[in-house]
User: What shape does this take?
Amino acid sequence: MCGIVGIFDRFGRKEIDRDLLGRMNESQHHRGPDEGGLHTEPGLGFGHRRLSIIDLSSGQQPLFNKDKTVVVTYNGEIYNFREIRRDLEALGFEFQTHCDTEVIVYAWEAWGESCVDRFRGMFAFAIWDRPREILFLARDRLGVKPLYYADLPNGQFIFGSELKALLQHPKVPREIDPTAVEDYFAYGYVPDPKSIFSGVRKLAPGFRLRLKRGEPECVPNCYWDVPFAVDTGITEQQAQEELIERLREAVRIRLVADVPLGAFLSGGVDSSAVVAMMASLSGDPVNTCSISFGDPAFDETRYAAMVAERYHTGHRVERVDPDDFSLVDRLADLYDEPYADSSALPTYRVCELARKEVTVALSGDGGDENLAGYRRYRWHVYEERIRSLLPLSVRRPLFGLLGHVYPKVDWAPKIFRAKSTFEALARDSVEGYFHSVSILPDNLREGIFSSAFRRNLQGYSAVDVLHRFAENAPSRHPLSLVQYLDMKTYLPGDILTKVDRASMAHALEVRVPLLDHKLVEWISGLPPEVKLRGQAGKYLFKKSLEPYLPNDTLYRPKMGFAVPLANWFRGPLKQKVRDAVMGSNLAESGVFNMDFLKTMLDQHQAGLRDHSAGLWSLLMYESFLRRHA
Assistant: This one.
């Protein structure tokens, strides 16, 4: 795994500042501590930081073709590179290395922009074709690997794996995008293709971008999407058998490495399934790791131990202090943009633990989105059944009134928190789902923002993000639709961003077999009722895994990394959060209604309301402002 950067003069061949390129590259040293390389020529500069995984003795980047006319800088892994290499050798191409990077160069020469259609893996790369004066960028289909870019007023186009690399460039505009701020306080992250800065973009998952010197166009185009084309001819038994075979293959192709390899084993279904497949494919014990929490409500290590014992893994467990908030100030440096998923803290720790033993780790990320594991999916399907009984013109005033008058009881089980349900039923399908995933609901976002900032938004609302994706969704089935929305927003913007930055901070490569695009395509075509059956999420997945995993692992309530924010903000971080939220950075930004923020703080710290998610998002935004604005 690596870090990439580049500078391209779009309309001329001005000399590239090599020192600037070097600073951009070195800002990502953590992504590739093994080696670094720069290439400059008139009007172009590429940089690369390398974490050596395959072909350790060669494959240094930037890497050229045989006649030095095409060069690539690349982050990721192409798992089917040997198969593609054979095809290219049959076409007459001669290879100098055994790494997957060289395959990208010759695939470009052979197939042009359609080369990405052949790649199976996670990647973000840039190719410079000197004879045609074309710069080509591409990002993998699900967004496992990041790629930022900016089209600068001075005619330069720059890119990098992380935002911090672009911010080394003195010409990058630092103006904050107000719509990105609205998005952040709704979702907890800035969804692709926006960044927090209006002058910087992310290349969206499954998109590519072609720039020809002298031409003004700079518009990415989509080369892949999740199809959700249901196969009605497959039986449930056939689907179970094929799911295991496809999962095993997705794991198998991710076991290629010339460095120590292992897996995260949380004790949940997804990571346990990956470990079970790894064990069936490996002659040696699989290296696995878990972190434990002091709070038994969130500690899954006994379930992880069951799987580790069953498959005789080399298992390592490390205890994490549930009050480990020492990383709070580190997060802004890791994520560059405001990022409010507090599970980034334990994710950082599990990556830190894994790196003590391995350089590559397989994870179970993507299973919930693929196979309908989130509880919110069940609630959404239930709410959709109710919505179908009454038109929106009736539901909006009826349930809107009930939602308004019903008391808010944060402490109660969800079944008794009818206020949120009534509010969701008063909305259309997409708005209802948005209400369920928002960190701060509409009324709180309106409250925290100043009147001047709300005017600056000009009517924009973060729900527009979901509406935009819903318009192009390949399925209108209630379950498939929200799975699709999550794959476009939450998966790349939150889950994969969290893991990429936390793992790269430790020079650890994480591979995600459940997000193999061929597996994702096939799963998306399964009937929705075999993914979510009644109240049982991941129904087919769990049935398929019964021969491989203990029932206690398969059929128990879902758990996950949890951070005791509510207690922190009333205890050890009480003054820290108050200083941040009521301090000068937020006050002087012009974004916030400071009286409302004080009310939130007072209510939370008095124990009257749980505003922990909102306060955490404010704490992370203040930390971002302190470093970058």
About this structure: The chain has three domains: 2-222, 236-372+495-554, 564-629. The longest helix spans residues 236-252.
